[in-house]
Amino acid sequence: MSESVEISDTSPAPKPTAQPALVMQIIVRRDLLDAEGWGVGPLMAQVAHATSAVLHETRERPETQAYLGNLKNMRKTANQASIERLASLLAACEPPVPHHLWVELPENIPTCLALAPNLREPKIKKALDKAGCRLWRA
Catalysed reaction(s) (predicted)? Predict the structure, then answer.
């Protein structure tokens, strides 16, 4: 039985222009909620940390600036092995896919991974699929 990774898609609402929409995927370890007994609040704090970190780390990228320039149109999950595998797959892409793996301290537990705003490139979809990511369903 394989465990799955879940993602939250923060895609901006579709625009009337022909330009592809930028998206930002956030991968959350669902097993922390289900098996480890974490509350939704602490888990969402991990999402906020990872998202803030990747936006800060990629703040000079045109894609990040464009994504953040369209705040009014934004729409607002994984076990440890899966999330670490996804981080490795993204780092191995050529060029590497900008992301941030948030590790909760002092426990040293990887909890969440946020990808920099992107255009849903095939290499990202392939990495998400290989890591077993699926859309979060409450």
Answer: an N-acyl-L-alpha-aminoacyl-tRNA + H2O = an N-acyl-L-amino acid + a tRNA + H(+)
Q: Domain coordinates of the chain in residue numbers?
A: 5-135
Q: Tens place of pLDDT for every residue, the chain, 138 residues?
A: 344 455 555 555 554 555 678 888 999 998 998 888 999 999 999 999 999 999 999 999 999 999 999 877 665 457 899 899 999 999 999 999 999 999 999 999 999 999 999 998 999 999 999 998 887 776
Write the DSSP assignment of the chain as a string of letters: ----EEEEE-PBPPPSSSSPPPB-EEEE-HHHHHTS---HHHHHHHHHHHHHHHHHHTTTSHHHHHHHTTGGGB-----HHHHHHHHHHHHHSSSPPPEEEEEETTTTEEEEEEEPSB---HHHHHHHHHTTEEE---
Class of domain 5-135: alpha beta
